[in-house]
C-alpha cells in the first residue's frame, strides 16, 4: 500500500467524529446553484453527464477525503487515450467508502489536494469542457465506483449507474450506492481488465 493510500485511509478515520456511529451518510447533489439536466444513458459504461453552465459548482456529494486531482488537460483527439479523456478532474473517497469522480472541469481550487478532508457541499471545481469534452456543451462527467490504485481510469470513470442516486439526492433524499458498488466490485473484481475502447 503506498503512502498516499495510507494518508487517505487515515483522513477517512478522522472523518468518523463528523457523524455519530449510527448516523447514515448525508448526500447532496454534486452540482450546486445551477440549473442542470442529465440523461439516463451514457456511452458504453456506467456514468452520467450533468449538463450545466460553464463555471457552475461541482461540490462534494458526501463528507470524504480528496483522492485524486488532475489540473493538466493532456487529452488529444489524435490519440484519445482513456487516461486523458477526463481533462481536469477531482475524485473523493466518501465516508461511505465509495469513490465519487467529476471530470471535464475548467477550474479546481488550489485548496483541493489529495488527502484534504471535505464536507458534503464543499466546492471541488467549476464545470467546463476539458479533456474529450472539448467543443461540447459544458458538463460534469460524474462516476461512482470503489477506490483503486492511481491510474486505474477505467474504474474511476464510473462502475454503477448514477441516475437513481442523483435523482434521490436532488430531491433531498439520502440514497446510498454502497450495496450496488460492492456488488459490482465482487462481480468484476477490484481491478477489472482495461476496456478495449
Automatic annotation (TrEMBL):
Residues 1-23 form the signal peptide. Residues 47-145 form the M23ase beta-sheet core domain. The keyword Lipoprotein does not apply. It comes from the Bacteria. This is Peptidase M23. Pfam families: Peptidase_M23. Coiled coil: none annotated. Keywords: Signal. It comes from Candidatus Planktophila vernalis.
Amino acid at each position: 500500500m503506498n503512502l498516499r493510500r495510507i494518508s487517505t485511509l487515515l483522513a477517512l478515520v478522522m472523518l468518523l467524529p463528523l457523524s455519530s456511529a449510527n448516523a447514515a451518510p448525508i448526500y447532496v447533489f454534486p452540482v450546486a446553484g445551477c440549473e442542470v439536466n442529465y440523461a439516463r444513458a451514457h456511452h458504453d459504461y456506467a456514468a452520467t453527464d450533468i449538463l450545466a453552465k460553464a463555471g457552475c459548482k461541482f461540490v462534494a456529494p458526501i463528507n470524504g477525503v480528496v483522492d485524486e486531482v488532475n489540473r493538466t488537460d493532456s487529452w488529444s483527439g489524435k490519440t484519445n487515450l482513456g487516461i486523458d479523456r477526463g481533462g481536469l478532474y477531482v475524485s473523493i473517497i466518501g465516508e461511505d467508502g465509495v469513490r465519487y469522480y467529476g471530470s471535464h472541469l475548467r477550474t479546481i481550487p488550489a485548496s483541493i489536494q489529495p488527502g484534504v478532508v471535505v464536507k458534503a457541499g464543499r466546492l471541488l471545481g467549476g464545470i467546463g469542457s476539458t479533456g474529450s469534452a472539448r467543443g461540447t456543451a459544458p458538463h460534469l462527467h460524474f462516476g461512482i465506483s470503489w477506490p483503486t490504485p492511481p491510474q486505474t481510469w477505467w474504474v474511476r470513470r464510473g462502475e454503477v449507474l448514477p441516475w437513481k442516486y442523483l435523482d434521490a439526492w436532488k430531491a433531498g433524499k439520502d440514497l446510498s450506492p454502497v450495496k450496488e458498488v460492492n456488488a459490482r466490485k465482487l462481480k468484476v473484481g477490484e481491478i477489472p481488465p482495461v476496456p478495449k475502447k
